[in-house]
Amino acid sequence: MARIDVIMPQMGESITEGTMSRWIKKVGDTVKRDEPIFEISTDKVDAEIPAPNAGVLAEVIVTEGQTVAVGTVVARIETDASTAVAAPAAAPPAPVVGAQQVAPTAPGVPPAAPRAAKTAAPTPTGDESAEERLKRKSTPLVRKMVEDHNLDLGVIPGSGSAGRVTKQDVLTYLESGAPAPAAASPTPGPVVGAQHPAPAVSAPPTVPATAAVAAWEGDRVEPWSRIRKLTADHMVLSRRVSAHVNSLIEIDFSHVAGVRKKYKDDYAERGVNLTFLAFIVKAIADNLRKHPIVNAAVSGDNTVYRRDINVGIAVALDWGLIVPVIRHADELSLLGVARGVQDLADRARNKRLTPEDVQRGTFTITNPGGFGTYVGTPIINQPQVAILAVGAIEKRPAVITMPDGSDAIGVRTKGMFCMAYDHRVVDGADADRFLADVRKTLHAFPESQG
Amino acid sequence: MAEITFLEAIREGLDEEMQRDPNVFCLGEDIGGFGGAFKVTEGLQAKHGEARVIDTPISEAGIVGAAAGAAHYGMRPVVEMQFIDFVSCAYDMLTNYVATARYRAFLPCPIVVRGPSGGYVRGGPFHSQNPEAAFLHTPGLKIAYPATAEDAKGMIKAAIRDDDPVLFFEHKYLYRRIKGTMPPGDHVVPLGKARVAREGKDLSIITYAATVWKALEAAEQLEKEDGLSVEVIDLRSLLPLDDEAIVATVRKTNRVLVVHEDTVTGGLAGEITARINELCFEWLDAPVRRVAAHDVPLPYAPPLEDYVLPQTSDIVRASRWLAAY
Q1: Do residues B262 and B292 lie in contact, with contact meaning Cβ atoms separated by under 8 Å?
Q2: Is the pLDDT of residue A186 over 70?
Q3: Nearest CB to B282; choose among A108, A110, A144
Q4: Which of the residue ranges A64-78, A213-227, A432-446 has the most confident prediction, judged by mean pLDDT?
Q5: For domain A3-83, which CATH number applies: 1.10.150.130, 1.10.1040.10, 3.10.290.10, 2.40.50.100?
Q6: In the predicted model, is pLDDT for residue A301 greater than 50?
Q7: Which residue of chain B has the CA closest to A142?
Q8: Is the confidence at residue A252, as pLDDT, over 60?
Q9: What residues of chain A lie within 8 A of the CB of B307, using their CB?
Q10: Which residues of A are catalytic?
Q11: What is the percent of chain B where pLDDT is above 90?
């Protein structure tokens, strides 16, 4: 027999917690593998979570409405049905017998806690969940520090009473240069932990506090939503850790426009809208293999060259930005890419993205040109090293060299690309060679690919 | 400059203000020829005359009422309560009449009600009280409660010059035990501003009056025996409270002990704790703790008084608990 933990999944990079919105199954129900057992909602994604294994839902640990950290065990599935529900639920943790429970000698004067608690510095015990530690063994300040530095409270040794993690413990941990939960491994590994890249652990808090601004009469003051706060932190952090450089290149889409026109109705019959973006994603994906430094991540003093080519597409939602990812984009046909882009955008808007949909991006494309913008200068999506902004694709006057060698002004369909890249690892020549190849691909996009 | 006592500092402040402003006068029980129960006003009648240092009948309500009337006519009366415990007899005048006069009738009421307060002197239940919390809840009043001789002088002068009624608590344990050298010139300490009595970084003790000295003793002991760096904040003014100073020390040390000699329930420590929760909760690395007197009338018997009132050892014990949290 075996009892398997069901955990709160990570529903996107920089998401650190999720809310249990509904249990679809109840204790004692038989579940099939991949059968939805509960629904969660985070700031970015609402989703049904499938069972990791077949069995019987033996314990429900997180109840509806509770918000818990990513990685928290929310339920357990008994894979051997005969012993499932009979087993007692995990005993609640013994109450902390703190000094405050001893009769005080004067009102409000708690007896001193044993000094041993301070010096013994007990290490975290394995049988305690991150959520338990967070709830019982952290203070407002420590929670704030852990969030600012993007640390995992569960791995910081606590020297306070009952193993509580104190401010000093966090400072000591930061000074010791202990690895941040994310981006620690120099080889491509599973995406772990909270997804801020946490470049150097001893770095100051992500977002420097800004001075309070006085609201004037009639102003409306709106506190940040969680997604806004995460976005703000991520943007400032990215600006701070990466040496942003922008390269701009103009692309002539006249040929692509022709291919698009030719196949558009065909695709529409198959339920796919053939957009310029599909061509761009395809051209990017096909060229990343030749330019691995652009398809990379930075981890400490290491460059992580990604094996897979997973292209993220920034999707603007009413409530913020999300970057769903087309996995193995280089292995898809134009049709596959177009379908993938459409599917991800639809599901992002309908809150039907799964955790996998927003993880493991290796390169990001953002498409502000839809609004008519000439081009934008994007901020790198950490820990990646490059992001491409696509400007408006529209008819523009261009100099055309005629067959006889003379020049004339003609009308061409053109658009501007701006790639921001991290100059710590990507040199200008690397970036420009990559962009030149992308342009070459788009200028001569094979018609057969349609 | 020679050192003078806390009590002499108040007398000096009164004297200087009476010289500066002919509208300032004192009234109270036995404050003239006798110089007051603790001799705070000794010599002032001889110097300024019977019209400006007035002996009154034993009626606290009457004294405060007379002062309020004089204040409405432009005078700046300074009322002495023989013991601050008896201010309860003037509670109605102070809370219903004086505190609301400006709001009700645009009548300024710049009076000072001062008197000896506090315990640690084997005074028993009628001569050891700290009634500040009863007035803390009354909008319209200001409350000053100095801990040093310098502040005693500077704040009595600020209280007399203030255009609103001020309750001025003088801790009798400090009267002759605490000394200080007065800064030269017109030394005025503004109301509403706290003071960092000792800098520290591990935890903060927020307190006022006599327990400032107990907190300083505790801080000394904690530094020697535990290596703890303890900050001590002397509030000086209880109304208005110096929120800025409170928030600053919370953000600095993240651990706070509030200490006062007044009884714990409904005392100022509860208000301070609530403000910390509202203003800077996310800067706390431990719960806010209180050390204050037990909720009983103050016993006369010395061992019992020692048990009921907060002692240095209580502060040390609570600080250690906080530091280890």
Answers
A1: yes
A2: no
A3: A144
A4: A432-446
A5: 2.40.50.100
A6: yes
A7: B285
A8: yes
A9: 106
A10: 423, 427
A11: 98
- Decide: helix, strand or coil at residue B120: coil
Residue of chain A nearest B310, judged by CA positions:
A106
Q: Which residues of B touch A143 (CB under 8 A)?
A: 282
pLDDT in tens, A356-376: 888 899 999 998 777 889 999
Q: Which of A52-66, A185-199, A230-244, B211-225 has the lowest mean pLDDT?
A: A185-199
**Which residue is closest to A117 within chain B, CA to CA?**
B324
The pLDDT assigned to A93 comes to: 38
Q: Tell me the pLDDT band of A60, cut-offs 50, 70 and 90.
A: confident
Walk me through the domains of chain B, giving residue ranges and CATH numbers: 3-181 (3.40.50.970), 195-324 (3.40.50.920)
Position of tokens 């904040």?
Answer: B233
- CATH 2.40.50.100 domain residues, chain A: 3-83
* pLDDT in the model for residue A116: 37
Q: Which of B254, B291, B324 sits opposite A109 (nearest CB)?
A: B291
Name which of B310, B320, B325 is nearest A164 (Cβ-Cβ).
Answer: B325
Residue with tokens 């639920």: A89
CB A328, CB A159: distance < 8 Å: no
Residue type, B264: V
- Residue A112 has its nearest CB partner, among B281, B284, B321, at B321
A chain contacts of residue B294, beta-carbon cutoff 8 Å: 106-107
Where does CATH 3.30.559.10 sit in chain A? 242-449
Question: Is the CB of A108 less than 8 angstroms away from the CB of B254?
Answer: no
* Per-residue buried b or exposed e for B235-248, using 16+ beta carbons within 10 Å of the residue's own CB: bbbbbebbbebbeb
**Length of chain A measured in residues:** 450
**3.30.559.10, 3.40.50.2300, 3.10.560.10, 3.30.70.1350: CATH of A242-449:** 3.30.559.10
Q: Which residues of B touch A117 (CB under 8 A)?
A: 324
Residue B282 sits at the chain A interface (C-beta within 8 Å)? yes
B250 → chain A, closest CA residue: A141
Which stretches of chain A sit within 8 Å of chain B by CB? Answer: 99, 105-115, 117-118, 139-144, 160-161, 164, 166-167
**Does the CB of B320 have a partner CB in chain A at under 8 Å?**
yes
For A405-426, the pLDDT digits (tens) are 899 999 999 999 999 999 999 9
Per-residue pLDDT, A179: 52
Q: What angle do CA A179, A183, A186 make, to 5 degrees?
A: 95
What secondary structure, in 3-state letters, does A140-201 show?
HHHHHHHHHHCCCHHHCCCCCHHHCCCHHHHHHHHHCCCCCCCCCCCCCCCCCCCCCCCCCC
Q: Looking at CA atoms only, how far is residue B322 from chain A in angstroms?
A: 8
Contact, A346 vs A399, CB < 8 A? no
